[in-house]
Amino acid sequence: MSLPPTMTPEVCLGIHRTMVRIRVFESRIEELFRAGKLPGFVHTYLGQEAIAAGVCAALGRDDYITSTHRGHGHAIAKGIELGPIMAELYGKETGTCRGRGGSMHVADFSIGMLGANGIVGGGLGIAAGAALSARHRGTDQVAVAFFGDGGINKGTFHEALNFAATHRLGVVYVCENNQYAQFTSRLRTTAVEDLSVRATAYGIPGQTVDGNDAAAVYETAREAVGRARAGGGPTLLNMETYRLGGHYVGDAEVYRDAAEVEDRRRSDPIERWENLLVTEGVMTERGRSEVWDETTGAVSEAVRFAEESPLPEADSALEAVFTEAR
């Protein structure tokens, strides 16, 4: 295996930094939640890092993404700062949504991150709307909708893809096929083996990709984003991966064998990417270690920032609920 000629060292190393950033952040979140320091529930992105990093590397800052309840990785890959997202998970005033959104609804419109979503498949229509707005405003912005293999069976999937295809909107639909919808195997919920074939029902391109191969993710996303930006309409990408953690932190995981999880760890996307970059001479072992060390420090600083930040004042609870009338 070798790197595609379109992937410059800058792109390769940028994807690596993003993947490590997500892994260290999510690992720390798991620790904090188990220690009782975070409210609510958290759903980590461990094992799926190549998808968020590779897809978002193909986007511009003003392009849009919609996310899922498992959204920290997407937010980080799109460029959200670690301090504000950590503070959001703590429910603090300095969070990206002033502590109102929390883990499942983190958003940052300034970088096109239109929000994680507690509703399965909730971002599918929002992405179509974002692409429609770009058309009306005369921009070439592209929208990407991240969703899971559970979301592909929701009615919103059909409605959004049919609308986007009919109007040839600039949307890329990225199915993060991590094999489980909450606690249920994909094999028990979906009749087709290759989820990308559903694209044929809407007359749009569909492709299945190894979601743990960062180069394959980036190249496929780059092509789909380019087509969308040029007016070629939407694409459905089925990115096959595996969720290393449970559905949420604390999940007993009685629905799958520990041996299965251990076997899947052997195709860890970060380890695969690092081995390839070292082999290709793009990264040194020292450079690899420096990225992990720097990221660990940055995440620790984000925790400090969040823990020292104030909670929202009680009398501000109704602020930002409604848009001010003009």
The N- and C-terminal alpha carbons lie at a distance of 58 Å
Helix count, DSSP H or I runs of 4 or more residues: 10
Number of separate strands = 7
Uncertain runs:
none
From the alpha-carbon coordinates, what is the Rg to the nearest angstrom?
Answer: 19 Å
Give an account of the 3D structure:
- The structure is a single chain.
- The chain is an alpha/beta fold and 326 residues long.
- It is built from ten helices and seven strands.
- It has helices at residues 9-34, 49-56, 72-78, 82-90, 123-137, 155-166, 214-229, 258-264, 269-279, 285-308, and strands at 64-66, 143-148, 171-177, 180-181, 184-185, 206-210, 235-240.
- The chain has a five-stranded parallel β-sheet with strand order 1-2-3-7-6, sandwiched between helices. The protein has a two-stranded antiparallel sheet with strand order 4-5.
- Helix 1 (9-34) crosses helix 2, helix 1 runs antiparallel to helix 3 and helix 2 runs parallel beside helix 7 (214-229).
- The longest helix is centred in the first third of the chain and has 26 residues, at 9-34.
- It is globular.
- It starts with 8 loop residues before the first helix and ends in an 18-residue tail after the last helix.
- 50% of the residues are buried.
- The mean pLDDT is 94.
